[in-house]
Amino acid sequence: MAQYDVIVIGAGPGGYVAAIRAAQLGLKTACVEGRETLGGTCLNVGCIPSKALLHASHQLHEAEHNFAKMGLKGKSPSVDWDQMKAYKGEVVEGNTKGIEFLFKKNKVDWLKGWGSIPEAGKVKVGDEVHEAKNIIVASGSEPSSIPGVEIDENLVVSSTGALDLPKIPKKMVVIGAGVIGLELGSVYQRLGTEVTVVEYLDKITPGMDGDIQKNFQRMLKKQGLKFVMSAAVQKVETTKTKAKVTYKLLKKDTEETLDADVVLVATGRKPFTDGLGLEALGVELSPRGQIKTNAHWETNVKGIYAIGDAIDGPMLAHKAEDEGMAAAECIAGKHGHVNYDVIPGVIYTTPEVASVGKTEEQLKEEGRAYKVGKFPFMGNARAKAVHQGEGFVKLLADAETDRILGCHIIGPAAGDLIHEICVGMEFGASAEDIALTCHAHPTFSEAVREAALACGDGAIHA
Ligand code: FAD
Predict the structure, then answer these.
(1) Does the keyword Disulfide bond apply (predicted)?
(2) pTM value?
């Protein structure tokens, strides 16, 4: 029986980062993973393969829509779907192998197989039981569906199936206008699929700033995505080759149908804790199945910790990673910390969408006095030069102290630009601090500075 200071269950971004950090802090560490490869949902069937397909399909879009304008003429590239999937596979493999290398480098033992916790201090993998002073559960999440809709990963697919369709469908219905539905919907729309997104609410990307929601939907529509809003999907029926989606229009109270070759169910994800034995151990779960933890990511059972998608909070890889590092640090007797107020969210469509901190709607609800600095990418020379002048930066700052409260960006490289504001928020920056910082010209970042200037005496190029 092997003895460890820490055994992490699950090698997604939460688990593998926790294991590496624990080992770096001198703790004897193992990580259990049931999949064939490391990296969890994110690397295998989430963030990374979706970004590979978004990248490839974006290149096609550029070739079809912008190359000729720049004097690059000739036949548009045709799509070899199998080759595109092979490219995606290579990207995934490169990343998962990278984690294997990091485990070896940091002397983290990879225990291959599905793990369970027969009692506190013990982890069973296959027939072997290992002892661990501390256990970190990082078992992640799985797709969830809605009543009347059964995912068969054939005609009715989750994101996992959508990343690996045998052929590009002619018609796709996406149920749910959240991040995953819109990213994958965009991929297929660019590849020539007629994509209709059916959403229960009257706005896309629930929880995002209203300005972003409105403009993002308008831009996606312009690209060709269709939307049916305020529509409750009742059921999905399938024949051998076709699917039919029945939905109820909430405002009219009428039932309508849509035919599709593939239906993507993107209605959210739920914590995955099957087979761990948590109930028998008495580990408390929330009604939504999330593992409950204290401020140090420890559950109500001493020595058992939990992080990532399996616990409360945004289901994001970087949130899981931060919790992984922090939990390992707490176990090592240090002061692990995650600032949940400054966790950026990014949608990797074109244009990208990024957001951190409070939305304008939240500030209104809190009754907080705020000011808005907004700057359109049309006023940014670099964005215009690369045909990405759509969108804006919206900065929210406290009306009195000028302290930055939130930032919402839709436009080129939004997912990278947002981090300037994240760092600023961590340092308690004011909008003026950003406005007084020299930004190189011509960069997209100048739009962030201009939005900060707009919180004060005014932007220059608006
Ligand atoms: P996971 O990544 O789910 O990893 C958990 C691992 O634990 C799995 O490999 C599982 O096999 C293993 N496991 C579970 N139980 C056991 C057991 N008993 N024994 C052994 N192993 C076990 N987030 C972003 O931040 N950015 C994005 O761009 C992004 N894109 C996404 C796109 C898609 C299509 C999807 C589905 C998700 C995306 N996400 C994205 C979300 C992101 O993937 C998750 O938030 C992240 O993977 C959560 O990390 P985790 O470590 O908590 O769990």
Answers:
(1) yes
(2) 0.97
Rg (CA), the chain: 23
In the residue annotation, 387 being an active-site residue is answered as no
Which listed residue (65, 337, 387, 441) is catalytic?
441
| CATH number attached to the domain at 144-268 | 3.50.50.60
In this structure, which amino acid lies at residue 322? D
| CB 12 near ligand 1, within 6 Å | yes
Q: Where are the domains of the chain?
A: 4-140+272-332, 144-268, 345-455
The residue whose CB lies within 8 Å of the most ligand 1 atoms, and thus the one to mutate among 139, 319, 356, 418, is 139
Domains 4-140+272-332 and 144-268 share a fold: yes
Ligand 1 centre and the CA of 43: distance in Å? 8
pLDDT tens track, the chain, 462 positions: 679 999 999 999 999 999 999 999 999 999 999 999 999 999 999 999 999 999 999 999 999 999 999 999 988 899 999 999 999 999 999 999 999 999 999 999 999 999 999 999 999 999 999 999 999 999 999 999 999 999 999 999 999 999 999 999 999 999 999 999 999 999 999 999 999 999 999 999 999 999 999 999 999 999 999 999 999 999 999 999 999 999 999 999 999 999 999 999 999 999 999 999 999 999 999 999 999 999 999 999 999 999 999 999 999 999 999 999 999 999 999 999 999 999 999 999 999 999 999 999 999 999 999 999 999 999 999 999 999 999 999 999 999 999 999 999 999 999 999 999 999 999 999 999 999 999 999 999 999 999 999 999 999 998
Report how far ligand 1's centroid is from the alpha carbon of 133 (Å): 25
Backbone angles phi, psi at 35, to 5 degrees: -70, 165
* Binding-site residue positions for FAD: 51, 115, 309, 315-318
Please give the biggest Cα pair distance in the chain: 69
**Distance separating alpha carbons of residues 3 and 16, to the nearest angstrom:** 19
Q: The domain 345-455: what is its CATH number?
A: 3.30.390.30
Amino acid of residue 72: L
Binding site, by residue number, is 51, 115, 176-183, 199, 268, 309, 315-318
